[in-house]
């Protein structure tokens, strides 16, 4: 993996460990010679992961829609800042630039980005690893929800298992490096389920 996209909050959240782990993820990516692709802001967890990369001499590429420049405040120290016109263009560009995805704690935007990448993988549009760094159990309820989707027959287990999860950065990167995309289609056949 040469580049990883990180989706995360533009706020820090209520627990200091979110910022600590975002910074550590950035440092780890730089040490592993993996470039960061992210939303381009210098605030919240977004800024922390970028600063972690840059402070270790790594490369950070931001993709920021023009209309968010004043709200998310573009990071001025990036290796490259790519300005786009829309959120859709942002996600497409981030996908084009990266070899995998990691989600850190965040809100609706983080979830929307994560689930769009999962959906694209489920449909066979890409075969990239998609992961959650489950800091301090932040995503426990979401993981339980995906298990419920499988149990209720609305999601194949093989598709649920596309979502790689760990609370440890090194373990998560190892899972991503060894990921093999499923070859099964998305649709559940009532006769076979």
TrEMBL record:
Domain of life: Bacteria
Catalytic activity: AMP + H2O = D-ribose 5-phosphate + adenine
GO biological-process terms attached to the record: cytokinin biosynthetic process
InterPro entries according to UniProt: LOG, LOG_fam
A molecular function GO annotation: AMP nucleosidase activity
EC number, UniProt record: 3.2.2.n1
UniProt GO cellular component terms: cytosol
Class of the enzyme per the UniProt entry, highest EC level: hydrolase
Keywords (A to Z) from UniProt: Cytokinin biosynthesis, Hydrolase
The family this protein is said to belong to: Belongs to the LOG family.
Name of the protein this chain belongs to: Cytokinin riboside 5'-monophosphate phosphoribohydrolase
């Amino acid at each position: 993996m040469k580049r990883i996209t990180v989706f995360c909050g533009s706020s820090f959240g209520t627990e200091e460990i979110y910022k600590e782990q975002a910074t550590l993820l950035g440092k780890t990516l730089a040490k592993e010679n993996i470039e960061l692709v992210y939303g381009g802001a210098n605030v919240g967890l977004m800024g922390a992961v970028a600063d972690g990369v840059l402070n270790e001499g790594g490369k950070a590429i931001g993709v920021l829609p023009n209309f968010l420049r004043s709200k998310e405040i573009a990071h001025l120290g990036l290796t490259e800042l790519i300005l786009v016109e829309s959120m859709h263009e942002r996600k497409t560009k981030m996908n084009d630039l990266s070899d995998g995805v990691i989600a850190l704690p965040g809100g609706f935007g983080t979830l929307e980005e994560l689930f769009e990448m999962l959906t694209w993988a489920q449909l066979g549009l890409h075969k990239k690893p998609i992961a959650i760094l489950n800091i301090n159990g932040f995503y426990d309820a979401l993981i339980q929800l995906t298990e419920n989707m499988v149990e209720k027959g609305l999601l194949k287990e093989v598709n649920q298992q596309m979502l790689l999860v760990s609370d440890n950065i090194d373990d998560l990167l190892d899972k991503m490096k060894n990921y093999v995309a499923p070859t099964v289609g998305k649709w559940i056949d009532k006769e076979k389920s």
